[in-house]
Each structure stands twice: as structure tokens, then as C-alpha cells.
Amino acid sequence: MIALRERTRVESFGERLRGLRLSRGLSCAQLAHRVGVTEGAIRQMESGQTKMASFVIGLRLAKELGTDAWYLANGVPDDPEAQAGGADAISLRVTALEQQISALRDERSR
Questions:
Q1: Which of 44, 77, 96, 106 could form a disulfide with 49 if both were Cys (CB 3.0 to 4.6 A apart)?
Q2: Of all residues in the chain, what percent carry a pLDDT higher than 70?
Q3: How far, in Å, CA of 76 to CA of 63, rounded?
Q4: Can you list the domains of the chain with their CATH numbers?
Q5: Is 59 buried (19+), middle (13-18) or exposed (0-12) by CB count in 10 A?
């Protein structure tokens, strides 16, 4: 008998963005103004119409939302060891991304 693996739902970029924005008490318009995009752009990112912000906008969003860009983009908190660099830190990041990709593939195949 094949054991069923528990599936963990991965929070999307848009869900993370919306949650962070709401936890900071910001409206879409306020956040948009602070990062230099339109309110519609924020709404599109949150709704999933835009899967990911551009690099520069992502950095601005992370700064305004008081989080690191790595967490905003991937949902994995940045590891202080990773900030120091090194092959082990990169390996940990790659592993975390591979796990997220695998979870997303599993979710899509349902």
C-alpha cells in the first residue's frame, strides 16, 4: 500500500503580499504610492494576475513591508547564515526552492 503524503499548501506571492500589507495596516493605494506603482499593479500582484514583481519593485515592496526580499519572493525567511554567503547557505536556499516547486507541481497535478 502506498502511504499518502501530507500535502502542505504553499502560500503564493500574492497571498504573502496581501497578508504583509494588511498586517501593516496599509491600503493598496498607500503601498502603491510608497513603491512607485499603480494601485492596480498591487491588486494584480495580490490576485495572482502578476505572479511576481520585478526585481526592483520586489525590493521596494519588501522594504516598505518590513520584510526581506527573500521571504517576500519565496515564503522562506532569510537565514542569517545565508547572508554570510558560502556554498552551504546557497545549498539550503536551493533546497528550499526545490521543495516549494515540488509542492506547487503536486498542487497543480490535483
A1: 44
A2: 79
A3: 16
A4: 10-76 (1.10.260.40), 79-110 (no CATH)
A5: middle
Between 47 and 77, name the one with better pLDDT: 47
pLDDT score at 1? 42
Check: CB of residue 17 under 8 Å from CB of residue 49.
no
Q: Is the per-residue pLDDT at 47 higher than 50?
A: yes
CA-to-CA distance for 38 and 22, rounded, in angstroms?
A: 17
**82 grid coordinates:** 545565508
User: Count of alpha carbons within 13 Å of 23, Cβ hemisphere only?
Assistant: 10
